[in-house]
Specification:
The structure is a homodimer. Chain A is α/β, with parallel strands linked by helices. Chain A is built from nine helices and eleven strands. In chain A, α4 packs across α5 (about 155-170) and α5 (about 155-170) packs across α6. The longest helix of chain A is centred in the C-terminal third of the chain and has 15 residues, at about 155-170. Chain A is globular and about 50 Å long.
Chain lengths: ~240, ~240
């Protein structure tokens, strides 16, 4: 297959870097492994009807006042006054089944906001890795993986998850990457492949969560293919594809 | 040695990311492997007296009118009207010995400009890798490696060179890193260690230079430890330490 007929897959390390990629990709895959996009996948796996991602705590609060179930996380912790943050385990509550919930997080909802005008915006994590790759390969469209990072800085776990997507798509022979960020992400994933948790244990955000006693969350978020749900953004709401 | 008495070494992927690191590091090591900082090392190895890095072509031109030897490179090529760009081989000309020269390049001089207010600003490339690490370990100071990138995007060769510095410093047991960018750079260097050229052959900038028939330059720039010079910024001029 010639380079012209193959599709392109690239990795953008941070929301602020997205401007450079914005025009060239029909599909944006938003990644925030620890923990927003993992929590979103877990929520749909557990029967949530929709998730409204909002960038600010104020907006989340407005929804809460209207009677919505609303979650807010900043710097790894639940914001005071809210009932839940971005722990995937919060969303396994049977009360959430069939509900429309509202969520704001430090990094993940920001990257959803940055990507919102793309043709197709999907949510990925290690949890739905194979499912999302299998769906993407069927589409005649170029794809950019948008890592949420940590306060707009590079982070290891999102990059490795993006690298796993690049690895899987390029292995089909139908995709190519040209950006150094994508090549690096793929190499980092290949180094990490045998033990996600082992590689990421040195990551700064993992240390941050460990201090907050969130090891169980981290372990869950780094375990691939626990669900086949693919959350997609439709009219400002995340729903199941 | 406890973490408190060890020194810190980190990697910043792009000039625009430097703001985040700015306050915490006494030493900034500026890296632009292909080719500005490699050319600067080659120039000092070949007896140049000083190099005045300027961010714009206009400033370089002003110096040229005053009789300076002035070089300018944009997008890998020599700017029209200038005698040289950033090929290391240009600086091996015997006419350059003992001279003060002026240089502006796409990425490298920009990162020198961004870093200029730090206590100590050094210039590194693969060419002076061991020399610069040996000097740094003697200093009781924290160090950040500032990659020039490509038009403010992540690039592979600068990151791998920075990773080589992190690897060498942390191997002494006297340094630690906390940022994910530094951990990733070190892993990428370790993957690339056996063959710099092999790993970087997929890099986007290398492909760009290959199109411009600059393979000889690339090979030279990726060969470690060809010189022991350490260029340092003093009052706006690069001189030999």
């Amino acid at each position: 297959m010639s380079i012209e007929t193959r599709k392109r897959v690239e990795v953008c390390f941070t929301p602020s870097g997205y401007e450079y990629f914005k025009k060239d990709f029909e599909i944006v895959v938003v990644i925030d492994v620890l923990r927003a996009t993992s929590a979103i996948c877990a929520a749909f796996e557990n029967g949530v009807n929709s998730i409204i991602p909002v960038p600010s705590i104020e907006e989340a609060w407005e929804y809460k006042k209207k009677g919505f179930l609303a979650g807010a996380e900043r710097k790894g912790q639940i914001v005071e006054g809210f009932d839940f943050g971005n722990s995937p385990f919060s969303y396994m509550n049977p009360e959430f089944k069939g509900k429309d919930i509202v969520l704001t997080t430090t990094n993940g909802t920001k990257s959803l906001d940055v990507a919102k005008d793309a043709e197709i915006v999907l949510v990925a994590s290690f949890l739905n890795l194979n499912a999302i790759c299998q769906w993407i390969v069927e589409q005649p469209k170029d794809v950019v993986c948008l890592c949420s990072g940590w306060q707009d800085n590079f982070n290891l776990e999102d990059t490795i998850c993006a690298g796993a997507i690049v690895d899987q798509l390029t292995n089909t022979g139908n995709y190519y990457s040209t950006e150094d960020s994508s090549i690096a992400a793929k190499y980092l994933f290949q180094s990490a492949k045998k033990s996600h948790l082992g590689f990421i244990k040195s990551s700064s955000h993992r240390r941050r969560l460990k201090k907050l006693n969130l090891n169980k969350d981290v372990h869950y978020c780094l375990t691939p293919n626990q669900t086949s749900v693919i959350p997609i953004l439709k009219n400002g709401k995340l729903v199941k594809l």
